[in-house]
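USER:
Try writing one entry.

ASSISTANT:
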Amino acid sequence: MRTAPTILHLDMDAFFASVEQASKPSLRGKAVVVGGLGPRGVVATASYEARVFGVHSAMPIGQARRLAPNAAYLVPRFELYRTISEQVMRLLRALSPLVEPLSLDEAFVDLEAGGAAWDATSARLAGEKLRADIRAVTGITGSVGLAASKMLAKIASEEAKPDGLVLIPPGTERAKLEPMSVRTLPGVGPATGDHLRRAGITTVGELAEAGEDELVRLLGKAHGHALYAMALARDERPVVAERETKSVSVEDTYDIDIHDRTRVGMEVRRLADRCVRRLRGSGLSGRTIVLKVRRYDFSTLTRSETLRGPTDDPAVVREAAARLLDLVDTTGGVRLLGVGVTGLADYTQEDLFAQAAGDRAAEIADDSETTAEPAAEQRPAPGERRWPAGHDVRHTEHGHGWVQGSGLGRVTVRFETPYSGTGRVRTFPVDDPDLTPADPLPLVPPVPMVAAVPCRPGGPGPASEIHGASGAAADAAWADTGSGAEVETGPGT
């Protein structure tokens, strides 16, 4: 293990909910819950204000509403979350070439590999600068853990929440871990925790005292060896820059079971198209198509079909998913459907296009509709429009706002932006022609920039001429100049 705390773990604070609060001034400091809002929806993220009431991720949304009836309940805006995540990841990659993303809001960084830190002092400075840069670029906060191993860095970042930094000096790891619950260690879930508790082991210190042989007897060879090593603070895992994507999938849970076979087929077709859009967006193709069906009785079935080679053709994926659906009995009703692609590659097998039946001209016409941007799906014909809570809208008279709620033929909108004060609330008919869906606004106002002047010898480069930002934050802001940032031309010399 290292002799310096140069492994950093970043975990953004209540990421989805924090983005929504930063986007909506009226929700700052309030309880916010992001997730599926139907009867079978679950909580994706809860703000810290909502967690006070006992709301947490993966909780059924109905239970969350009972615990926090006055919270704001919003439908996720994943495209916005991905955009913010990309900004954060750019800042991390400015620190080191070894960045291991775990999710949209979490990553490990090897500071030593990038020369950003070599001892405790430089590691702390790098962590504090990262936190400041994240706030400057995105307007939201993240917590940082620093340690000599990945396990300890992650434990430190959890302790740092929210909006903090914790550094575990090398040599103090055992003392830090010993009083902690065994559930703190990776791989110790509720079942393993209960099993250890029945054996009289509740803390990491007791886990180490039990000895390797006893843990192997209790948990099996692989798990016992691994937990004993972790209890002794041993973790030699390196930060891995590239984590291979093993599958791409999408799924929907339905508020009311679907019984009509034709409707089930239409949903599978729609999910296949969404899956292909995500596949293409990642520059990937795949050769195994997977269909997931959860029936009325909660039984879950999966069926798969492997093609001759990888494809990203929507017609091929649709037809494979339809063939798989023919193998599943949906008579009693369906509560969840999913379509996925595995066996991923970064190329396509051209002759697979021949697998798509039907007239190719009709297929191309169909593709032109199904591969449209997701935003187009949010603009159905008047009278059929849906207004998801929390999503952005624009009114020709009142400007930019977001949906507070809709129903009974009306939609309520609060007109405010990330840079305004709390806005006014107005209600409109759901088919009001002056009200349209809108793209999210950046959480931080575009930073005015001064263009570089090449003829000025020794002058600062473009990234250093960004007013109000420096270092990695300036680089990240500079990378976004193509997205509408205002640029000023400095005076010539």
Notes: DSSP finds 16 helices and 19 strands in the chain. The longest strand covers residues 247-258.
